[in-house]
Amino acid sequence: MSKLSLQLKGDKVIWGIYIALSMISLAVVYSASGNLAYKQTEGSALHYLFKQVGIIVIGFVVMYLMHKIKYSFFSIGSKLGIWLVIPILFLTIILGTNINNASRWLMIPGINISFQSSDFAKIVLLTYLARTLSKLPEKYRENKNVLNYVLFQVFAPTLIVSLLILQSNLSTAALIFVSAFFMMILGSVKVKYLLTLAGSGIIIAAFLFLLVKYNSNILPRFDTWVSRIENFRTDDPDADYQVIQAKIAIASNPIVGKLPGKSSQRAFLPSAQSDFIYAIVIEEYGTFVGFFIIILYVSLFFRALVIAKHSQTIFGSLLAVGLMFSIVFQALVNMGVAVNLLPVTGQPLPLLSSGGTSFVFTSMALGMIQSVKANADMKLVEPTPINTIEEK
User: Fold this and answer.
1) For FRET with 173, which of 117, 243, 262, 344 sits at 20 to 30 Å CA-CA?
2) Domain count of the fold of the chain
3) Cα separation of 331 and 298, whole Å?
C-alpha cells in the first residue's frame, strides 16, 4: 500500500473518488447494457462489461501519466493546442461521423478509432484560458492594451471554439462557454468586459436564430433543440419517451433500490447505459446511493478549491478549478436531466456512463489537476539548501 501511495501523487481524496466512481460504473454499465446486449450481442452483456473494464484501465493510465507531468508544460502546450483544436473542429464538421444530423465523432486515420473532438477542445481551451488569465493581473498593472488582450486572447478563442461545436452539439458548446465564463470571473476579468462577452453571445445567438428560421440547413439540429426545450416546458407525457421512462425508473424504486441487476426500465430506456445511467443507479441502488454520488461529485470540486488554494501559481489555481468545474457542472446537468429538472442534453455522466471518449478525457483532466497538487506538495517538502543552513 505504501508503494502504491508513493506512486500516486496528488490528492488522495480525488484518487479515492475516481476509483469509487469507476467501480460503480462497472456494475451499473453492465446492468444497464442488458437491452443493448439483447439487440446486438444475443443477450450477453459481458461484452460491454469487458469494454468498460478496458476503458477504465486506459483512463487510469492516462490520469497516472498526466499527473506525472509538471503542470507548467500544460501551459506551454496550450499555446500550440489552441491552434490545433480549431482545424480539428472544422474537420469534424466536414469529415466527422454523422449521427442524427450531428457530426461529433472524428476518425483517427490508420487505427480506426474515433473520438469526440469537443472533449479534447474543452480541455485545451480551458487550459489555454488558465494560461492567458494568469497573465491578466500583470496586464492590469502595466495598463497596456488590456482590452485588446481580453478580446483577442480570451474572448475570441472562447467564441470560436464554442461556435464550431455549436453546429452539432448545443449542450457541449453551452457547457464549454459557461465553464470558460466561470474561469473569466475567477481570473478577475472586469465586469464591463464580461458584459461585453455576454452581450456578444446573445447577439450571435439571435442572429443564428434568424438565419435558421429562413434556412434550417445552417443548423440541422435546430429543430431537435427547440423540440427538447418545448417538451420540457409543456411536460407532455407523450412528448419525450426517454424522460418518461427515466421518471418511472426513479419513482419505482424503494429507498434501498431494487438491488443490482434488477432494473426493469433498462429495457425501455434507449440510453440507459449512457445519458440516463443516473436513473438506473437510483432504480437499482436507491435514493441514498443517488445522493451519495452527488456528494462525490461536489467533493471533487471542493478538493479542487483546496488544490487551488495551495498552488504556487495563478495558472495552477485556475487550471485546477476550471477543469474540475467543467467536470462537476456536466455531472450536475446530466443528473438534472435524469430527474427532469433540465431538458434533455445528451451529456454523459462523467466517470459513470459508458463511452471511451468521455471517460478518457475526464481522466486526462483529473490527471492535470493532480499534477498541480503533486507539484505543490513537492514545493512543501523541498529540502533547505546547505548554504542556507550554514548561514543560520
Assistant:
1) 243
2) 1
3) 10
d(CA 180, CA 174): 10
Spatial CA neighbour of 280 closest among 302, 299, 263:
263
DSSP string, 8-74: S-S-HHHHHHHHHHHHHHHHHHHHHTHHHHHHHSTT--HHHHHHHHHHHHHHHHHHHHHHHS-THHH
Distance in angstroms (rounded) separating the CA atoms of residues 381 and 266:
51
Report which residue type is found at 17: I
Is pTM, for the whole model, over 0.85?
A: yes
- Measured between alpha carbons, how far is 143 from 147 in angstroms, rounded to an integer? 10
Is the residue at 213 inside a domain?
no
Phi-psi region of 112 (alpha: psi -120 to 50; beta: other; left: phi over 0): left
Report angle CA 305, 306, 311 to the nearest 5 degrees. Answer: 95
Tell me whether residue 251 is in a domain.
Answer: yes
Amino acid at 253: N
Query: First vs last Cα of the chain: how many Å apart?
Result: 39
Domain that holds residue 296: 13-68+231-377
Coil/strand/helix, residue 113: strand
| 174 burial level (CB within 10 Å; 0-12, 13-18, 19+) | middle
Q: CA angle, 196 as apex, 193 and 201 as ends, to 5°?
A: 130
Grid coordinates representing 131 are 494560461
- Establish if 194 belongs to a structural domain: no
What cell does 286 get? 436507491
- Minimal CA–CA distance to 344: which of 241, 262, 267? 241
51 inside domain: yes
pLDDT profile of the chain (392 residues), mean per 10: 69 95 91 65 70 94 95 93 92 74 65 81 96 86 77 90 86 92 90 82 76 64 62 62 74 71 69 81 88 96 95 94 97 90 86 89 97 77 42 38
